[in-house]
Specification:
2 copies of one chain form a homodimer. By secondary structure, chain A is of the alpha/beta class. Chain A has 2 domains: 110 residues, Urease, subunit C, domain 1 (Roll); 288 residues, Alpha-Beta Barrel (TIM Barrel). Chain A is built from 15 helices and 18 strands. In chain A, strand 17 and strand 18 form a beta hairpin. In chain A, helix 2 packs parallel to helix 3, helix 11 packs across helix 12 and helix 12 crosses helix 14. The radius of gyration of chain A is 21 Å and the shape is globular. The relative contact order of chain A is 0.16. The interface between A and B is large, with 73 and 71 residues. Chains A, B: Its EC number is 3.5.4.28, 3.5.4.31. Chains A, B: Keywords: Hydrolase, Metal-binding, Zinc.
């Protein structure tokens, strides 16, 4: 593979010093970053030189919670509370889902994510082979798991566990390392304790992390207390889950002492701020979670509850909401929000040795923003402009493992027109 | 002027029945709408037929509070509380402002607004002749006022009042009716009661409405009580302001009985949800204001506290935030949010006989969204997609008074490159 270098960019490294390099360059070869710094005067050793003329260059964003197949349900049901939305709208229609739905729904989601600068996403759903094949073909990076809902017969649960285990085993470190896997009980309120214990054992056996929904709504926490005598955090701790690396999605309704437990085990959190607002689930105690030293990343959840997968919206929302709610304009400054969308996202899925910042030796997963627009003027403060004034729609070029997957705002690895045709064909039958 | 018709659009009329017309058409001539309905089979009477092939067509958005000149200060100071931000950052730098700053800052703001589908905006600032000339040239619509801060000598106040009055008189109904004016004391905490009374008298004399900042922060309300023995609403009522049509910006800290006063006088409100969050001013009681029957519209405030002028962000934010804050996913549904950004915006500035909805006889101010993108698929519910998944960046074409001002995402009436050059030239001196 040839030696390439991007020159004269505004480089947001997101490294340990949060270096911002004006007139900076990033070089890459064989999918890895080989240089980050000021643009060198001698460029003769490079095969391809791309001058980005001041545009922002930053690590691809990491979306740590979602259900890509569900994009077929975007706008199918809005303005309803979570349980009604799930039980009356989502679950009945999802029961009719086939591999075809998973395939085209996932492709639609991948287009949205790549177009808006997400280069790595977490997915928890079923028909995961379809999801993995779509990830492989599109050239995006993903940490995938077959989410297990424990309702129904013992045979059904056993077959789900086998399916989830074989998926996790077969696809881990595939697609040139772009796909990694996890084991995933859906939630404490949909999986009985013994089923969760079996899944945890399997995760230990396969040496894989765990991903689970936890404490998204107040009613789910109350149900947990009624059924098992404990709030979800203590309940999962007792079931041994947190001995294994765990990423919990939501963590909206967690008390101070529960955060101490999460911190003790280094449990990672995916904050899904927009989905939580839209479903009226509540507002997670983000400043407190951060002050405990917990790694908090950002997730979109599915486009059925968001309703898009543009992580730039989460980026701005975390930097806005807590200021207003806590009457403190200094909370979650722009730089912290951007860390949550990049390096903390990588840490939350145990891939921070490979992605999440622009550093020599890491994977060449990065994005270029078109900043020659009014929204980015005057050029006072690039990180402020990116977080407070930018949009995922401004992402121009996207590279994963050094390969260009978005060019001038168009996906080059997925046939957008075909995908739009297929999702409308499928959704007309709902 | 020729007879034009847009055909096969998804028309969001925002009329009294909130009609959504699939395969709809809108015709216009001499700047006015002459037809709205299903696409006619016979189009032979039209000089120009534009087939938008399913794209959304809706009224241009109305941004009811802002300070266009301040876009030069985007990203100049973030993550600070309002008073510190104003007193230590904004006011000192604004004191150095010249007509040149007003001219180029306003042009930058107009580009942002037109590009993201705002066709009418409210502006309160100084050097307003520059603002009005920029509005005239760009072909946008605006309701403008010279905001008066009452500090300093009596002579200074008098000269401001004269300047504000002559501006309001000279520019009202100019630019082919696209410019209207108001009279504007900055706020109760920057204008003494007698100065406010003088401004109100002048508004009565000129038969113009009043625009004022009110109850944006808790500390400003407390100051009002200390200084004048009343909270701002009662204080302004006593000064006779509400006898004249009034638009208040913010109304964040208003109690139930204060809302009754606002409702009694039909005082209009501009909700500035994003600016209020970012400056940690608080969260306005929007559901209560609406339940009192008060007209609530949306404003961006300036890009120094937002940090952009894309009203689609306010549109989504009002439909999200209150659900999460009040634990009620049915609050401010998508359609209500869109009304706030369109027809309620027009009502808030007393122009609803001319703009805010697509109806025969109204002005041809409308926008076309590029919905042939993943974010708008599958085609379940256009208004949901627009509010929850859309972005101002998806606005493709913009018309004001039947004249195209944005074409394929580019402003055709303002030289974007020149404006970007000038704002950076000016801001380098800060």
């Amino acid at each position: 593979m040839s030696k390439k270098i991007m020159t004269n960019g505004t480089i947001m490294t997101m490294d340990a010093e949060n270096r911002l390099i004006k007139k900076g360059a990033i070089a890459f070869e064989d999918g890895q970053i080989t240089f980050v710094g000021e643009t060198p005067s001698d460029l003769s050793s490079y095969d391809e030189i791309i001058d980005v003329d001041g545009d922002y260059v930053l690590p691809g964003l990491v979306n740590t919670h979602g259900h890509a197949s569900m994009s077929l349900l975007r706008g199918y049901a809005d303005d309803l509370p979570l349980q009604q939305w799930l039980e009356e709208k989502m679950w009945p229609i999802e029961a009719t889902y086939t591999k075809d739905h998973a395939k085209w729904g996932t492709n639609l989601s991948i287009i949205e994510m790549l177009r808006t600068g997400t280069t790595t996403f977490v997915d928890m759903y079923d028909n995961m082979d379809e999801v993995a094949m779509a990830v492989d073909a599109a050239g995006i990076r993903a940490r995938l798991c077959r989410g297990m809902i424990g309702f129904g017969s013992e045979e059904l649960r056993q077959s789900k566990l086998e399916e989830a285990s074989s998926f996790a085993r077969n696809w881990n470190n595939q697609a040139n390392g772009r796909i990694t896997t996890m084991m995933s009980p859906h939630s404490p309120y949909t999986c009985a304790p013994d089923f969760i214990e079996k899944i945890v054992s399997k995760a230990v056996e396969l040496n894989l992390p765990i991903h689970i929904h936890m404490s998204e709504t107040q009613s789910e926490v109350e149900l947990n207390v009624r059924e098992y005598g404990e709030r979800p955090v203590k309940h999962l701790e007792k079931l041994g889950m947190f001995e294994q690396p765990t990423l919990v999605a939501h963590a909206v309704h967690v008390e101070d002492w529960e955060m101490d437990i999460l911190a003790k085990y280094d449990v990672k959190v995916s904050n899904n701020i927009i989905s939580n607002l839209k479903l009226a689930s509540g507002i997670a105690p983000l400043p407190a979670l951060l002050s405990k030293g917990i790694t908090v990343s950002l997730g979109t959840d599915s486009s059925a509850s968001n309703n898009n997968l543009d992580l730039f919206e989460e980026l701005k929302q975390v930097a806005m909401l807590y200021k207003g709610v806590h009457n403190d304009a200094t909370l979650i400054p722009a730089e912290k929000a951007l860390q949550m969308a990049t390096i903390h996202g990588a840490e939350a899925i145990w891939l921070d040795d490979q992605i999440g910042s622009l550093e020599v030796g890491k994977q060449a997963d990065f994005i270029v923003m078109n900043t020659k627009q009014a929204f980015y003027q005057p050029a006072h403060n690039p990180i402020s402009h990116l977080v407070y004034s930018g949009s995922g729609r401004d992402v121009k070029d996207v590279y994963v493992q050094g390969k260009q997957v978005v060019k001038n705002g168009e996906c080059v690895t997925v046939d957008e027109e075909r995908v739009i045709f297929e999702v409308n064909r499928l959704s007309q039958k709902f």
